[in-house]
Amino acid sequence: MSNPSSDVLLDRMMSLHPKVIDLVLDRVWRLLENLDHPERKLPPVIHVAGTNGKGSTVAMLRAGLERAGAKCHVYTSPHLVRFHERIRLAGDLISEHELSALLDECLAANGPDPITYFEITTVAALLAFSRNSADWTLLEVGLGGRLDATNVVEQPAACVITPVSIDHEQFLGDSLAKIAGEKAGILKSGVPAIIGPQKDEALDVIEERAARIGAPLLVHGQHWHVTQERDRLVYQDETGLRDLPLPNLHGAHQLMNAGMALAVLRHLKQPEAALTAAVTQADWPARMQRLRDHSFARRYPEFDLWLDGGHNPDAGQALARALADLPDRPTYLVCGMLNTKDVTGYLRPLAKTAKALYAVAIPGAAATLPAEDTAKAAATVGMRTDVVPDVASALSHIETECPTARVLICGSLYLAGSVLSQAQSV
């Protein structure tokens, strides 16, 4: 008898715990024990935490390692269109057959006990990785670090902490120091950690944790540096300097993400070709992604159409810088956000670059912020706003006002996923 589809199994997993997020590791350890500890049988792990830039850094690491001939298991979240995007086995997205079989096995091993959706699907990914040959495992933290379901590997090959900022305060704490403490929870004794650019308050906490447990650090600004000089990326560490192309992922913030990936690759003694590939061949959708082969782009060929899933104040600042670096053009935002986010903080830096904002609700997202509330927040930071039923309506309104506009669809990875799922629609 064939397994139920992964969609059916994933829906069942949503009902196993009353809370979507519940940060403890007891349930994960129990299930891992029931499955004979797959987390102990993984290829060498690179564990990546932080607030912004985790996914882009993982994408660059994957590009570099694969160019060097390595095969990489990769675990990221959330997905944009299909759950399968979260799990790559030796470079390829997990198949429907293998995913369904794994989920079924994990459900059976868990039995009637409570466990969150993220916890059980993370265990499924680790189980898949333990059974398939690869050279590296790239694990992206889902939320926080210390109590995240990915934080079960005793001795990773390396850890990474990307820039830490205020986000998910209801789970991680109401100060930068508290949030940094949660991120620093992935550090392990004797395991080198590459630390991206940090505010002093966050760096102090990370360095204190590292000193206490004996985790050697490679810190931006101390042990490695990355800058842009003309149209080149210049990376420097204790072993020398590398002159490389600028990242193919758009936006000035990708320079620092590239720096973190390069610091890891240099620490792992990867060849020069891996360094170049990391900055020129990474693929990471919905991070300042230009929409070219998409139904919206075909319908509005004169638009300069972009998509981004960033959703916190630091992401808003990075987006504002990225837009400012583009050739001058009237810019309009189509924005939908979750009700757990700092909407005003996200939109404030974008107010100077946007001519107007069209607010939408995120289709199918239970935690979507009502479009009217997004519009109110935008108005408080000085944006001209309008509320529309969906992205398609927003684009139609913008075309009427400015047929050659630059349009950024933004505010949430869930909105980005909804847009990408419409890629083939008429």
Automatic annotation (TrEMBL):
Cofactor section: Mg(2+)
GO molecular function terms attached to this record: ATP binding; dihydrofolate synthase activity; metal ion binding; tetrahydrofolylpolyglutamate synthase activity
Residues covered by the Mur ligase C-terminal domain: 303-412
Reactions catalysed: 10-formyltetrahydrofolyl-(gamma-L-Glu)(n) + L-glutamate + ATP = 10-formyltetrahydrofolyl-(gamma-L-Glu)(n+1) + ADP + phosphate + H(+); 7,8-dihydropteroate + L-glutamate + ATP = 7,8-dihydrofolate + ADP + phosphate + H(+); (6S)-5,6,7,8-tetrahydrofolyl-(gamma-L-Glu)(n) + L-glutamate + ATP = (6S)-5,6,7,8-tetrahydrofolyl-(gamma-L-Glu)(n+1) + ADP + phosphate + H(+); (6R)-5,10-methylenetetrahydrofolyl-(gamma-L-Glu)(n) + L-glutamate + ATP = (6R)-5,10-methylenetetrahydrofolyl-(gamma-L-Glu)(n+1) + ADP + phosphate + H(+)
A single cellular component GO annotation: cytoplasm
Domain Mur ligase central, residue spans: 48-264
GO-annotated biological processes: folic acid biosynthetic process; tetrahydrofolate biosynthetic process
Pathway linked to the protein: Cofactor biosynthesis; tetrahydrofolate biosynthesis; 7,8-dihydrofolate from 2-amino-4-hydroxy-6-hydroxymethyl-7,8-dihydropteridine diphosphate and 4-aminobenzoate: step 2/2; Cofactor biosynthesis; tetrahydrofolylpolyglutamate biosynthesis
InterPro entries linked: Folylpolyglutamate_synth, Folylpolyglutamate_synth_CS, Mur-like_cat_sf, Mur_ligase_C, Mur_ligase_C_dom_sf, Mur_ligase_cen
EC number(s) recorded for this UniProt protein: 6.3.2.12, 6.3.2.17
Ligase found in the keyword field: yes
Keywords: ATP-binding, Folate biosynthesis, Ligase, Magnesium, Metal-binding, Nucleotide-binding
Family of this protein: Belongs to the folylpolyglutamate synthase family.
Biological function: Functions in two distinct reactions of the de novo folate biosynthetic pathway. Catalyzes the addition of a glutamate residue to dihydropteroate (7,8-dihydropteroate or H2Pte) to form dihydrofolate (7,8-dihydrofolate monoglutamate or H2Pte-Glu). Also catalyzes successive additions of L-glutamate to tetrahydrofolate or 10-formyltetrahydrofolate or 5,10-methylenetetrahydrofolate, leading to folylpolyglutamate derivatives.
Protein name, UniProt field: Dihydrofolate synthase/folylpolyglutamate synthase
Organism: Meridianimarinicoccus aquatilis
